[in-house]
Structure formats: structure tokens, C-alpha cells
Amino acid sequence: MNNLDQNSTEFNPLIEGLIDRFNLRNLSEEDLNEFRINMEQQISRRLGLVILENLSEEGLKEYEESLSDLLIPDPEKINEITKKYIPDLDQKIKVSMEEFVKEVEKSLTK
Asked: What is the DSSP letter of 26?
């Protein structure tokens, strides 16, 4: 499962679930799209932080080297590095996404 070459469509079930859970379907299409984009960005950032926070010094060096000469990171190389240095990445992502949903819930129910 540990596959990081995901595009935004892989975030859709989570984002659409949040929209349904918090009854946001009554928002205008423009506001819904803005919400979707915002959630996508926040999820992407959080996934990046999960990786960076859990890489060893050696793994972080390899990760940085894999990014240094590229404008667009090679997803296969990133997957290779994360599998090597963060074998339980799927579990860490799951925990992070659960925390994210709680934070969204807290901010939407104020």
C-alpha cells in the first residue's frame, strides 16, 4: 500500500467524506471547490511532514539528494526511500489523517 505517487483523486474520498460529514453540500460550488483545494493542500503538507518527521538522518539525506536535481520528484524513488526508512509509513499516515479529521472537525464545529 505505501504508495506516495498519488494524485489528488486519491484524496477525494476523504475530502468528500468531510463535506458530507459536516453537511457542506449546501455551500456554493465555488466555496466547495475552494474547500476541496484547501483540504488537498493541507493533506499533502501533512503527508510530507509525516515523511520528514520519521526519516532517520541517513534517510533524510537520501531523500534530499533524490530531490535536489529535479523540479518534480520521482514518485518511485520517494516510495523506495520511504519503504526503506519508514516501514510502518502506512500506519503513521493513518494516525496523521485521523488527527487531521479531528482538527477539521474542531475547526468546523466552533
From this structure: T
The model's pTM is: 0.79
CB 46 within 8 A of CB 20: no
Amino acid at position 32, single letter: L
What's the domain range around 53? 8-108
Residue 91 has pLDDT above 50, yes or no: yes
Give mean pLDDT, residues 66-83.
Answer: 85
Classify residue 53 by burial, with Cβ atoms within 10 Å: 0-12, 13-18, 19+.
exposed
Report yes or no on 1 lying in a domain: no
Residue 42: name the closest of 79, 80, 15 by CA. Answer: 15
Q: What is the DSSP string of 76-92?
A: HHHHHHHHHH-TTHHHH
